[in-house]
Amino acid sequence: MQDRLPTSVKFGWGMGSIGPISMMYLTSFFAVVFMATYLGISPTIAGLIILLTKIFNMFTDPLVGILSDRINTSWGRRRPFMLAGGIAGGLACIFFFNVPVFENINVTIGYMALVTVLYFTAYTAFNVPYLAMPAEMTQSPDERTSIMTWRVFFVSVAGYVGLAFAPFLVWVGGQDREAYEFMSWVMGALLFAAMAYAVYATRRATFTTYESPQHSLKEQIATALGNKPFVNITIAKLLQLLGLSTTTAALPFVALYLIGGDFWLLTIYGLSLNTASILIISLWRKASKAIEKKHLYVIAITGYALCGMTWWFTGTDELTPLATLQWSEDISFTIPSLAYVVRCAGLGIFTAGVLLLGQSMVPDAIAYDYVRTGLRREGMFSAIYSFVEKMALAIGPLILGIVLDMNGFITSSQGVVEQPDSAINAIYIGIAVIPPLAALASIPFLLMYDLTDEKLQNVNAS
Asked: How far apart are CA 297 and CA 366, in angstroms?
């Protein structure tokens, strides 16, 4: 098995991240606010729809993982599933935001539940086999970090797509229900294109073939749970992603209710955060060669949490513009205050480190399983990680929804309405308290991760 991979393969594989990451951003960012302001669904019910459909994925994730481990085709074990997920994902994005007008709210809730099941099943079909590929494409931990550098780059690109471009489309479209529909058609096409290209670009990548295990499924699960590095990094990512999903669900409420602006503020957030991430990623990559990954990871997550706490000080004063650009007589682009831009850029700097280090440590832990047990079950581990990822990204919006409803948030089918002070305070808690605390809670599990590059190479050599 080759240790070095062509740049074209790493680039193409990394580009595939735009699909599932943008899918996550779209639902984390827009699902609760879209359902609460245009479908008349309470924030708690909106969060429950996301959570319950992801519980359904408790069954689909391992199924896809096991199937992608066990089939052998001329396309490899992973790529047929990835193509199916790309097609279904693009369509599901369109269905999610093109909601028929039903007279009964329960029918609307049922429609959203069914579409959300399709949406996240498509996500699973692509993402589980996709995440399994790096562990079988190379044996080199450093090369896997290089692969993940491309992934983190394209995660930042997905940030432009999901966190900046999608809100821009809604804003330009008039920030009404029809604007969401227009956005979904454009985004659906982009999601499919990115995932389909990853399938094409990895057609010559090295892949392993299925070998019948000599152990029962129960024995395999028991030995999998014995992979302590994987367990620790997965719990850490669960806590971090729970905080991230709460943040992204709260951001539209921050823009509309705390700052008093519109979705253009979300575009500025996405541009600032992801530009900073892309500019800084090479420095995190170099630092990972000089500092043990888990210690550098702790630095990154601490910085991210501290930046997140500064949302507590946000308010209408952040609408005071640095500059205003006149696009036409009717459209102008306002760059908000320096404090807003700096906060977003700071989050981007530390997000880059969190993503790079986490994403490079996960495939290391998966590869460690093979050298421990001799079993080829990258798909099983990727399914576990993908399910944990989706559960965390579902629990965050639910937590936010419960906090909002408990504090009197007023739902609507007509757009933004005035909220009581208690609901405004709940938004502050959802953006500046819950996410930083969740991120900091992951640090003990990062410190228990004991799989260094040297240890993995020694095991490989033995």
From this structure: 18
Beta carbons of 183 and 170 less than 8 angstroms apart: yes
Those residues whose C-beta lies under 8 Å from the C-beta of residue 375, and which sit 6 or more positions away, are 213, 215, 220, 223, 369
Distance CA 398, CA 410 (A): 16
Contact by Cβ (8 Å): 245, 308 = no
Contacts with 184 (C-beta within 8 Å, 6 or more apart), sequence order: 93, 94, 96, 97, 98
pLDDT in tens, 287-312: 988 888 889 999 999 999 999 999 99
CATH architecture of 7-201+215-461: Up-down Bundle (1.20)
Query: Residue 212 carries which side chain, given as an amino acid letter?
Result: S
* DSSP character at residue 292: -
Tens-place pLDDT, residues 125-143: 898 888 877 767 766 666 7
First and final C-alpha spacing in the chain: 17
Q: Are 77 and 68 in contact (CB under 8 A)?
A: yes
What confidence category does residue 425 fall into, taking pLDDT thresholds of 50, 70 and 90?
very high
Helices (H) and strands (E) in the chain, counts: 18, 2
CA distance 274 to 161: 10
Burial class (CB in 10 A: 0-12, 13-18, 19+), 454: exposed
Instruction: Give 337-364 pLDDT, tens digit per residue.
Output: 888 889 999 999 999 898 888 777 777 7
Q: Kindly state the tokens that stand for 449.
A: 């991760």
Residue with token string 């819950």: 434
Domain ranges in the chain? 7-201+215-461
Name beta bridge partners: 332. Answer: 326
